[in-house]
Request: fold
Amino acid sequence: MTLGELDTLVRDLAPPAAGAAPTRGFTLPQALAHCAQSIEYSLTGYPALRSRLFRATIGPVVKRRFMRAGRMSHDRAAPVPGAPALSGDLALEDARARLHAAIAAFRSHPGTFAPHLAYGACSREDYAVLHVLHVEDHLREFSALA
Reply:
């Protein structure tokens, strides 16, 4: 899936049916806003980074594993370290709009990208793939993806 396909998926995403919400972690609007945060921070810098040693050793190994597999599996209830808490009453349309805006900002970003909080330095291409995998992983929580 590309960022364009992701943008379309998010636009067409229907609210989950009753009972489809996870038993712990984010609601669907919070998950979309969390994914938007991650994209935004790839442009501006993450509020907190893992240690330099982690970003130079373990982080790149995990990044390559996810990219090779074409699938990410991570703690979908974990917030971005140091990021403001996501409101529990966030509207789905507001979260969807934030994610669309983050994707648009990423696409038009002319400069270099901030180091990922765990993976370290990422190219535009790496970040594009990682952002798609990240959103896909969160959407699986809500059965939006197989």
